[in-house]
Amino acid sequence: MFKLLKYSLYDILKSRFAILYTIFMVLVAVSIYQVSEDLSKVSLSLLNIMLMIVPLIAAVFATTHFFNNLEFTELMLAQPVKRRNVFLSQILAVIIMLSAAIVIGFGIPMLIWGADESILILLAIGIALSIVFAGLAFLASVMTRDKAKAIGISLSFWIYFSLIYDGFVLYLIYSLSDFPLEKTTLGLVFLNPVDLGRIIMLMKLDISTLMGYTGAFFQNFFGSAQGILLSSFILLIWMSWPVATAMRIFKRKDF
Amino acid sequence: MISVRNISKKFGKLDVLKEFNLEFEAGKSYALMGPNGSGKTTLIKIILGMVIPNKGDVIVQGESIKNNFKYRSNIGYMPQIGRYPDNMKIGQLFRMMQDMRPEIKEYDVELMESFGLNQMMDKPMHTLSGGTRQKVSAALAFMFNADILILDEPTAGLDPMAVETLKNKIKKERDSGKLILITSHILSELDELTDQAIYIFEGDIFFNDSVAMLKETTGEERFTTAIARLMEWSLKKKQTKTELSHV
Amino acid sequence: MKALIILFFLLNTTAWAETIRLKPGDSIKDAVERAAIGDIITLSAGEYLEHDIIIRKPLTLIGEGMPVINGRDQGDVFIVAGENIHFNGLRIINTGRSNIDDSAAIKFYDSKNCSVENIELENTFFGLHFSNSSNLTIKNNKLFSEAEREYQTGNGIHLWKCKDSLIEGNDVKGHRDGIYLEFVTNTISQNNIIHENKRYGLHFMFSHNNSYIKNTFRKNGAGVAVMYTRNVIMKDNIFEENEGASSYGILLKDISDSEVTGNIFRKNTIGIYMEGSSRTIFKNNSFTNNGWALKLMASCDNNTFEANNFSANTFDISTNGSVVLNTLKDNYWDKYEGYDLNKDKVGDIPYRPISLFSVIVEKIPSAVILWRSFLVTLLDRMEKIIPAITPENMIDNSPKMKPYDLS
């Protein structure tokens, strides 16, 4: 397993994409640091990147990587190694590369200009969302044999979780606005990793209390030990189920 | 050595292999033939565990391949098109494959040397020509002294000199008692390298016997023409079948 | 003639004032009884266990080395009704906690020309309680209460039907309302620090012609609430960190003909919440890091918002109607994305401070959880290009390109 991972990782880290993505992250972080005057503003601007760009890139890159590496995967399958390990080494390599780009990309500016807890949590959320969307992308990839189709499915996941789902939430809140909806919306947030990441972050940014009753309710929840535990747990589920499902399909897949 | 038992495989609604049985014995070399889509690649992939059959089992050296991966260390596989991680160097690729078989300590580097690969260990894979990649694949297949060699179109894309080198290597391994399984479109090559002919047609074994027997049955002296005859028969048989079904 | 007598009287008292010295163990009540008009009673350091000390004649009580008067959780400590009664340098602790008779550290009825200075209060129900009095000086006192809930404590500085007074340099913490004024006129409050009170930092009603200058209101339960008043001047105050589901920098309800200038609103859930208010000028205020800088209900009219800074607020302005009868001009908005081609430091295109999302949140508060989502960003962008829902005339036609220097 570690041998496989070592080689997959070596290959992916030397790819042009890894370098470009890291440079892109550095540029984004540097420009945000340059423009914003204080750290909380930095976190808010970075939040948009983490919620939009990171999942998009994770989804597209993971899918492309899966298909570009298909022959290598086949080569590995003909070797005396477990299928599970072949799969895990592939996805872990992708995840490690995406995370490394975030950590290095934001880490360098942070070392230079400083960071606070909220920015660190933001990085963690960026990494978590990378894992979620890499997992979904691999799921899309193992479900189909066609690269274009798989990219299509991955992009649909992305659009769904970043846009359509929230539209649905807004509609629901709107049509049920006569009822107290805090608990319902809390439940709805759990069903979308992007929303969950966004809200955990907003709560950390200390602006939640400025968002009226709903904000206060969410702050209460996410501020409590129980809430932190539950939300991390749900995020963990989001990180693991697509990977686990993709792996189950992969193990029975024909190459 | 390899025994394929009652294998059935469907791709969607298409039956590729149906209740398929086949035995491969050590010390023999097999030419696996059949028209495109006849199921020969599927068969190889099933043996290698890349395609999972819907039914049946394959026993390799007495072990079932189900949920088993260790048996593959006894198989040297040369794929039709070898694609390798772009950023890996040849030397790293060899080391990686050696890493995956930690129990094997002695490597057969004959092909590697005669192809001159040892002089370009630092070249990244994506800079290699198709022919050189093919040489890499061949060198890898033979590197581990595997008892079973599965070669999918081994000579495609190789220059004539390399083809000779490879053929000699195959003969040498065959004579040392290994099981060799070759698919190829170049029939003359098969004639030279194999002693058993298997002809698969529409998921069924149409012919399975020694090359000598094949020549005898078809009444042809040359391997190529014998195979051509075989193909004619198989197509006729198909027609009769369809006619029958209409009756 | 009458005036002359009073003058004589005054001179007389100051001239012949005697000093009565008390040490711990002595009775303050007796001393008050004994004292002649205008006497000075000094208390040396130590603890005095007394309550319900009634003072009805001009007297001055001065502490030396902060003597402590402990009311032992019973009733009021001092009850005052008179003129020229002064307190200085005392520490008063542990009043009763009765909601019925509003137990206080010092309670004034119908008094005039009185002062309370350098007093420290701790664990009192009401702090300083004034009724129907005038010409009061309340200066440099510290009022700390440690109640956990609103009903467990009274107001810090409480004035009812008072006038012509000065409230200055006090530090009020942990009471129900920090400063409470009802029917109070011509009074100045300045340089006070009012923080962590359970309900409002400053709470006034029907209190016309007052000024509030350079006070700091921080982390009060619901901020500052002022109602039913005209001619108020609020200048150079700081309203900050009033966070909570219904917490305001200032809540203005039926306030008219007033001025709110040079204040800083920082980190409040709502910077200013206004309803039924009119003809008030808001100028040179700075709104930063608030949830809503302004919530301007449709019942407000003829107010002017001029030359203020709005930056880093979640929402700049929200309103509940479509009719806007107020004026916005020359403000700086950090969310403004226009340009200034003629370099006159005024943006060439107007700024609409109400975002679509703030309209949505106004109607459906729970929708606030979608803040910063891609959907909302997209909706706001679209609305900016083609305004459809946001009020047409809530608009700043002369947005500044650079913030004012208001520090």
UniProtKB/TrEMBL annotation, chain A:
Keywords: Membrane, Transmembrane, Transmembrane helix
Organism: Belliella aquatica
Top-level taxon of origin: Bacteria
Pfam families from the UniProt entry: ABC2_membrane_2 (PF12679)
Protein's name in the database: ABC transporter permease
Regions that span the bilayer: 12-33, 45-67, 87-113, 119-143, 155-174, 228-250
TrEMBL record, chain B:
Swiss-Prot/TrEMBL keywords: ATP-binding, Nucleotide-binding, Transport
The keyword Methyltransferase belongs to this UniProt entry's keyword annotation: no
Record-annotated ABC transporter domain positions: 2-227
Molecular function (Gene Ontology), one example: ATP binding
Record-linked Pfam families: ABC_tran
Gene3D superfamilies, sorted: P-loop containing nucleotide triphosphate hydrolases (3.40.50.300)
Keyword field contains Nucleotide-binding: yes
Stated name of the protein: ABC transporter ATP-binding protein
Species: Belliella aquatica
The organism's taxonomic lineage, starting at the top: Bacteria, Pseudomonadati, Bacteroidota, Cytophagia, Cytophagales
UniProtKB/TrEMBL annotation, chain C:
Repeat in keyword set: yes
UniProt entry keywords in alphabetical sequence: Repeat, Ubl conjugation pathway
InterPro entries (alphabetical): Carb-bd_sugar_hydrolysis-dom, NosD_copper_fam, NosD_dom, Para_beta_helix_rpt-2, PbH1, Pectin_lyas_fold, Pectin_lyase_fold/virulence, SCF-Subunits/Alg-Epimerases
Pathway where it operates: Protein modification; protein ubiquitination
Annotated ranges, domain Carbohydrate-binding/sugar hydrolysis: 43-182
Protein's name in the database: Copper-binding periplasmic protein
Organism lineage: Bacteria, Pseudomonadati, Bacteroidota, Cytophagia, Cytophagales
